[in-house]
Amino acid sequence: MDLNLMRELSVSTDSRIVLLVLDGLGGLPMDPFGRTELEAANTPNLDALAAGSDLGLSRPVAAGVSPGSGPGHLALFGYDPLEYAVGRGVLSALGVGSELGEKDLAARINFATKDESGKISDRRAGRIATSDAAKLVDLLNENVKLDGAEVFVTHEKEHRAVAVFRADGLSGALSDSDPQRVGLEPLPVEPTNGTDGAAKESAELANAFIEEADRILADHHPANTVLLRGFGMHPALPKFDEIYELRAAAIAGYPMYKGLARLAGMEVLEEGEGIAGEFETLRDSWDSHDFFFVHVKATDAAGEDGDFERKSAAIEEVDALVPDLLELGPAALAVTGDHATPAKMESHSWHGVPFLLSSEYTLPTGESFGERTCAGGSLGVFAAEEIMGLLMGHALKLNRYGA
Amino acid sequence: MDLNLMRELSVSTDSRIVLLVLDGLGGLPMDPFGRTELEAANTPNLDALAAGSDLGLSRPVAAGVSPGSGPGHLALFGYDPLEYAVGRGVLSALGVGSELGEKDLAARINFATKDESGKISDRRAGRIATSDAAKLVDLLNENVKLDGAEVFVTHEKEHRAVAVFRADGLSGALSDSDPQRVGLEPLPVEPTNGTDGAAKESAELANAFIEEADRILADHHPANTVLLRGFGMHPALPKFDEIYELRAAAIAGYPMYKGLARLAGMEVLEEGEGIAGEFETLRDSWDSHDFFFVHVKATDAAGEDGDFERKSAAIEEVDALVPDLLELGPAALAVTGDHATPAKMESHSWHGVPFLLSSEYTLPTGESFGERTCAGGSLGVFAAEEIMGLLMGHALKLNRYGA
Fold it and tell me: How far apart are CA A234 and CA A93, in angstroms?
């Protein structure tokens, strides 16, 4: 998406846009002549909606490339996922609900075991119990002292945690300290871009943190050291109000998606319980915002588990709530996913993602919502990055380009 | 294709990829309501394969643009054909089987006739017989002496030959010596980019070669001079092993396609006779490589001759061999062309090229392999450059992008 074009053309109006994301919606037939999860699901409401909608298959990143949740959502929000990379550390920080500011550097932490010779003997500290690790995280937060910087450690699960470093002029161009194999010494964190002064100082900061942690954890064998990896700066994305003139809101049940929405400048609303609860939040906030990103996780989780039936059932649960959504009267409503998660593959995949856009101004081509009706739709196969442009256009929030 | 993305994500695995290229596969109906060469061909095996495959129409270069063999194949191999240009001289050198190294400069040669006043009186030396021209080529190879450079002349046919210059620091930014019309003096070869020192020295080298040739050919009227055109450096393409982690092999009957494959870093295998022989070579080399480019020329040749029936027959010949190919068990198999060569046009054209991708992870949409089933396929109309990404994805040779 050409964000400058969006900036130039966007106008604020009263019309409402809803981007309903069923995570990992795209699927595959279990055998080549069967139906996909979406095709197999009993979705009378989505089918009726599709019969009056523009349909297409969206591609999140590039041909053959399976996207992670970060690039998948960035593309949905209109950002080029190859230009705006979100590092693993940042995504983990968002996932544990860290308050990540624009100057912050994030990294993933593993508690690990170092033997007397200084070599790593266990990269996961014997898969230390979650409750034990949480205490060590508290210990680090209370005792680590860094020169000219703050650090916030948040526990994730078992041996995993996240560190957020806050100071001026940090850089995420840093190598991991994790040697990836046992029997080796931890590596010093180093700049990956040679001569950059910010990276050099950030590396010193990370190494100082590790030194502090070693001192504090010395008596806490097997978790007597930390390994750092996946360094990344908060990606300073241009924000939705500035690009699209939208007062955007996010309704999501999981911290990572809330965090991704916050990166785009959306206000994260307190969501109700489950899919029905999310839809209630949508109704309750209808007057205060003009763009709503609603995230449903259950489809992806079922796909990752290889559970075709459960994925279809999650789609059916959404389908049953579609009439409530339509009653609100969105000017433009997209129903899609951030990527495919075919139960057959038990993982994210590169396949086209079904996309439906309902508005007053559509060119309907199909009778139902499914991968194959979408493949034959008026939008064809297109880049997910274009979805925001389509939504803005259909909601009549874009001025004409040129005379 | 973003080659850096491929470099970042590619992993080596045991799975095998086959890219089966029927040169000039794309066609047109002779009248608008008829069938194309592929649609008219009796292809039970390809149709059965298509019924379980992803289908689409690929576009080699740009809308409305008919590609030559060079850009057509470069796009199939994942290179941007507008970024990686292969000069005519280079293509001719590959076509005659010249061993072209990374420092080499190639140009096409015409034997020509110069009159007493130094003007060109025949640009083709009376279409000199192939056997006579071959002797003159030997004469040049034995007698041309250049300062600090080697030159290798290879005969092509009649008045045409190819020169390959080998030295350090050569450049292909050179103008032709061929004045394009009789009655004019040959032009001096000149740098086309102004001040580039390498081009200046290369121009001097080319002019010295022409001077030497004039001396050696003085008594061989009508072939008493040479005209040089189509200068081009060996394009130093990034190689398949480096981009995709593939041990790639090429099976092709014609030197130009072997040469193009070699540019991409493929190992050119000694091919058996005809299409069946190529498929035998494929079977015999199955264990030693994990990517196979198989090139079939007969479809293009028939299209160029305007022979609709013969083109269909060539497709049927391939169809009959498809079961042997499937028996090998490729993880991902593409059947496509490098461009269209409709018999109706007797030439390469810009039309969409039928594309079929068979793997375990497809979303089938059609019942047969033809231009119109492909147009309605789950891949839509897409850039041929993306084919390598699709093949890598379907063969599970790409890591996920982003967390």
Answer: 10
